[in-house]
Structure formats: structure tokens, C-alpha cells
Specification:
With 405 residues, this protein is mainly α. It has helices spanning 3-24, 31-51, 66-69, 75-80, 83-104, 108-139, 144-155, 158-169, 171-174, 180-195, 206-223, 230-250, 273-288, 290-296, 300-311, 313-330, 347-371, 373-390; strands at residues 53-57, 60-64, 399-400, 403-404.
Length: 405
């Protein structure tokens, strides 16, 4: 019996499942939006796995980055720092969803509860596990620095969720906001921080809201139909890339679009003007990719993969750091393994780290199996709620942006 014969039943089953997913997807669903969201999530996951190392030093673990030792690898961060795309899609989905909710007579409070429940329900499991884990490690005599490093890495995705929740709650206020206004805030904050040097230390944190509000309001503009032309995508891509290059080459901004331990300035902590202009370029590229994605996702296998990532996006996002750290900890008895426990100071480390990625993915699959129910429970309740509302007498239908709601 050949290998091809052995694989045929499995491949046939996968294709059949993909065709079922494809057939069950409403024709009105914008598959490109789901693809962009999936790419953004996976970009963050792969970026963390590639640029975050846990180094064993004097019996303790501390975080390090290959970008510390090889700053010329900074372009790697350009490919995997994809948060702007997530905020772009989030703003588009939230503003469109809010308009649909209003058309159905759903209150702002009910709409917001549904959005935030999906966002934060999986968080409870992460917090519970790491509370127990941190307590157990401290009681077992683990160095405080090790526990602090692990907890910080595990919970670091939470900042993103908090910012996203605030922007989601503000959706009715920013539906018509021009992205140039928050961009101007970021520009003036950075001018005071870096140009004039007169800003108090806390002022930079204004950019946490203003910086991510830029792609979020671009998402709202997308909903309004203002970014439908390819010209809009090219303007954002070219303008954002040119501005970012100028800020890095002549204004002294870091080339890395992720935080690098030990550096005086981070483009993300808090967001700088360079991070925001880089996000504009990413948003422009995302808009230009919509048509090719629509064509690619007509294939059932491609669409099923995107749908699966979106179905458990928060679980993947919240547990990917835990998966990496669990692999690192479980491998400690084998000694200091290259690409896992050793300093990320040469290309050998990078090559070996790439070989570890499938192991991290396997550990993440275990986490997904164990904790996916925390995300599915909220979705199932929302489905039941939609079914109930659908069977209420409504008198008339409504449309938003040409789609029946």
C-alpha cells in the first residue's frame, strides 16, 4: 500500500469538511475581513515566538531578544508587528456591527456586552491558571525574577485587549471621526517628547489611545465606503512607508517596530509616531490585498483554514506565550538547548529557533484543546440570542450598507 493510498482518506475527509464550511458560509460574508484578522493574529504570534527568548542565567530565566544582539534583523519586526491591521479590521467590524444593531433596535448596552463578553471570557482562564502557577512557583522556591518574567510574558497580551475594549466602547463616538485627528495628537505628543524634550513622563501614554485610534478610525472610514478605491490603499501604503523611513533615517526613531529590551525608546511602549505611520502603511497594504484575498478564499480549503483561526482567535492569542514558555520549561531537564535557553546572539540561534516553531505550535494546540470552550461558550449563547431575536415579530426589515440585518 503506497503512502498516497494511506493519505487519501484523510485528505478526502479534510476536503469534505472544508466544503461543508464553505457551503455553510453566507454569501454576504466578507471573507477578506476574516483573512486579514487571521493574518494579524498569526503575525503577532509568530513575531513573539521569533523575537522573544527565555535565557537561563544563574539558575533564573530572563527575557531577551535577538534584536538586542543583531539589530540589523529589525526588518523581521516589520513583517510580524501586525497590530494596526487588527485595529483596522476591529474598527470596521465594530462600526458596521453597531450600525446593524441600531437598525435592529438593539441597545448600545446590549451590543457592547456582547462584544466585550467575547473579548474577555477567555481571559478568566488565563488569569486563573497563571495565578495558581505563579503562587506554586514562589512556594516552591523559584527565583522572583523568573516568576516575574514568566507572568509578564504570559499576561502581556492583556494590554492590547484593554485598549481594544476602550475603543470598542467608544465606537459610537468615533464612527465619524477623521483619522487625521488622532494622528495629529500622536504627532504633537512626540514633538513634545522627542523634539522639544519638555513633556512629562506620563504624556507618552496618551499615544496608547491616540495611536491605535488611527487604524481603528480608518476601519470606520472603510465602513463608510471611503476606502473602497485602490488609490486610497496606495496613498496609505506609500505615504505611511515614506513617513516611517524618514522618521527612522533622519529623526532618530528605532528601526524595530517591536520593543527591544535595554533600548531607551520603544516604538510600541508607548506607540510612537513611527509606529503609527508604519501602521498606516500596513493598513494600506491590507486594503490593497482585499481583492486577491477574495479570489483566493473561493477555495474551500483556504477559507476553512481562515475560518478555523477566526473561530478561536482569542484563545490562540491569549495562550501563545504560555505555549512557548511551557515548551521552554519542560525542556530544561535536557540542559541548555540552543534556540530555547541560550542567548539569542547569532544566526545559529535564529535557525534553531525556526526549528522550534512547530513544537510551540503543538504546545499551543494542546492549550487550544484545553481552553477553547471558554471562547465557544460565549459564542453559543450569542447564537441562541440571535435565533430568539430572529423569531420575534419585527414588522419590517432593515439594511445597512446594502446588507440586510
Amino acid at each position: 500500500m503506497t503512502e498516497h493510498t494511506l493519505q487519501t482518506p484523510l485528505l478526502r475527509g479534510v476536503r469534505q469538511a472544508a466544503r461543508r464550511v464553505d457551503a455553510a458560509t453566507p454569501a454576504s460574508r466578507d471573507r477578506a475581513v476574516d483573512a486579514l484578522r487571521a493574518f494579524a493574529i498569526l503575525g503577532v504570534v509568530l513575531g513573539h515566538w521569533l523575537v522573544t527568548a527565555l535565557v537561563v542565567d544563574d539558575g533564573a530565566l530572563h527575557a531577551a531578544s535577538p534584536l538586542q544582539h543583531m539589530p540589523w534583523l529589525a526588518p523581521v519586526s516589520w513583517a510580524f508587528q501586525t497590530l494596526a491591521v487588527f485595529f483596522l479590521v476591529g474598527g470596521h467590524v465594530a462600526t458596521r456591527g453597531y450600525a446593524c444593531a441600531r437598525a435592529r433596535g438593539v441597545s448600545y448596552g446590549e451590543w457592547l456586552r456582547g462584544r466585550l463578553t467575547r473579548l474577555f471570557r477567555p481571559v478568566a482562564a488565563v488569569l486563573a491558571l497563571w495565578t495558581v502557577a505563579a503562587t506554586a512557583l514562589l512556594l516552591a522556591g523559584a527565583p522572583y525574577d523568573t516568576v516575574h518574567t514568566l507572568v509578564k510574558l504570559a499576561l502581556s497580551p492583556m494590554w492590547f485587549l484593554l485598549v481594544f475594549a476602550v475603543l470598542t466602547a467608544a465606537t459610537p463616538l468615533v464612527t465619524r471621526l477623521n483619522p487625521l485627528w488622532p494622528l495629529a495628537v500622536v504627532l504633537h505628543v512626540d514633538l513634545l517628547r522627542f523634539g522639544l524634550g519638555v513633556a512629562p513622563p506620563w504624556l507618552g501614554w496618551v499615544n496608547v489611545a491616540a495611536g491605535w485610534l488611527v487604524p481603528y478610525t480608518l476601519g470606520a472610514a472603510w465602513t463608510r465606503g471611503e476606502l473602497e478605491s485602490r488609490r486610497a490603499g496606495w496613498v496609505l501604503l506609500a505615504g505611511g512607508a515614506t513617513a516611517t523611513a524618514g522618521l527612522v533615517l533622519w529623526a532618530g526613531y528605532p528601526a524595530s517596530m517591536v520593543g527591544v529590551p535595554g533600548t531607551a525608546v520603544s516604538n510600541l511602549d508607548p506607540p510612537t509616531l513611527a509606529a503609527v505611520t508604519f501602521g498606516l502603511a500596513q493598513c494600506g497594504l491590507a486594503l490593497l490585498l482585499r481583492a486577491p484575498l477574495h479570489r483566493a478564499l473561493r477555495r474551500p480549503l483556504a477559507w476553512a483554514a481562515v475560518a478555523l483561526v477566526n473561530l478561536f482567535a482569542m484563545t490562540v492569542f491569549l495562550w501563545h506565550q504560555t505555549a512557548m514558555m511551557a515548551t521552554t520549561a519542560l525542556a530544561l531537564p535536557a540542559g541548555r538547548l540552543t534556540g530555547l535557553h541560550t542567548p539569542p546572539d547569532d544566526l545559529t540561534w535564529v535557525a534553531v529557533r525556526l526549528a522550534w516553531l512547530p513544537v510551540f505550535a503543538l504546545a499551543l494546540a494542546v492549550c487550544w484543546t484545553a481552553f477553547r470552550g471558554h471562547e465557544r461558550t460565549g459564542r453559543a449563547r450569542r447564537r441562541r440570542s440571535r435565533v430568539v431575536r430572529a423569531h420575534r415579530p419585527s414588522g419590517r426589515g432593515a439594511t445597512v450598507d446594502g446588507h440586510r440585518v
